User: What shape does this take?
Amino acid sequence: MGSVGGGGSPEQDQPVCVTGATGYVGSWLVRTLLRRGRRVHATARDPAKAWRMLSAMEGKERLTVFRADMAEEGSFDDALAGCAALFHVAASMDLHLSPDQHDAEERVRSQVLEPATRGTINVLRSCVRAGTVRRVVFTSSVSTLAAAGAEVAVVDESCLRDLGDVWATKPIGWVYILSKRLAEEAAFGFARENGLRLVSVVLPTVAGPFLTPAVPTSVQLLLSPITRT
Assistant: This one.
């Protein structure tokens, strides 16, 4: 969002909303936005727990934590009221469902994929109702790209993994891959139909210092060859 870090514009004075604010990426995003002088509306299912984690940040007087749940229609309305932008970072991190489990595919559809897609649309509906949101930033993952790890000149939309292939081969993290791909696809479709300016930022596997109380999943995965867990 071009105005972040600027000053004096009406958009600069408006708050921005961050979903998944207590997660690995979300917490760093909240901290960065506060340090740049922005007012931040952070969302969490447990606001009291989120405030305990985030209230030590510099600029906390510009931070408001709202209770919101992606499974509840309209629960993001208050958080997005008056916001100039949304950073949608909240996502399921269920990477551990075995493809050999009974009815695995059906349970993935009903328990992960459909809720992830519905939840994303619920958040975007709140953006439309707010009437002030001018930019939506959706966070995707490098795991959704077929070109991940390959030497190609340009990695773009043509490099997205084929959903049928993911269902058939069930690679490591297949549930997460499907949830991000389907949620992103639904988000772009909704944005086009409702006039929202949406951009998808493809994140690599994230590592480094963390602000969360527990070690983030991506850090655990990267350390697993050492920790053997």
